[in-house]
Amino acid sequence: MIPLLFVHGWAFDAGFWEPLRDRLTDFPVRSVDLGFSGRPDRPSLRRPLVVAHSMGLAWALANVPRPWAGVLAVNAFPCFTRSAAFVDGVSPRMVGRMQTRFGEEPHAVTAEFLNRCGIADADLSGLQPGPLGEALDWLATCDERPALAALDCPVMALAGTADVIVPESMSRAVFAAHELILAERGGHLLPLTHPDWVATHLRQFAARLQ
Q: Where are the domains of the chain?
């Protein structure tokens, strides 16, 4: 079986993938942890199928060595904020407001973001403001679209039509050259809200990579 390398997004940790991992026990799996709420872990795998959520795709494109067997991008993006070169991004003022407040209120900013995603009353007792703040600053300016275009492996993207963090229009723009599958009324947390759906598409995609 192709090894899976899971990469979570901003404000999450490796535990984000547990519902999906529970449905994929026949795959060899490792998970990156970016250290936002615990010890960082950046395992390496030979020719993995990279499964990335949200900012995790941009991070993987910037940090995970090639070659890859493929990419499954879930609610994900290679570039987030709008600019003259990326008109489909979200307003930089939104990220800018988060950056401005984060230095003084990291827990409040993170809780508000998670609440927008659909997670209320998140346990932030282990929050690590340093790594999380650095990632937020990187998120504001990152553009890994050239790295995505340069990949020599298949790419499948899964997105939700009701995602308030990564709008459908952004998904359609950044994955215009790739296979994009939409979950009707799906939000930003498809691995948590639609784990069976995501697992099914992952299995079908992985079978094509053998």
A: 4-208
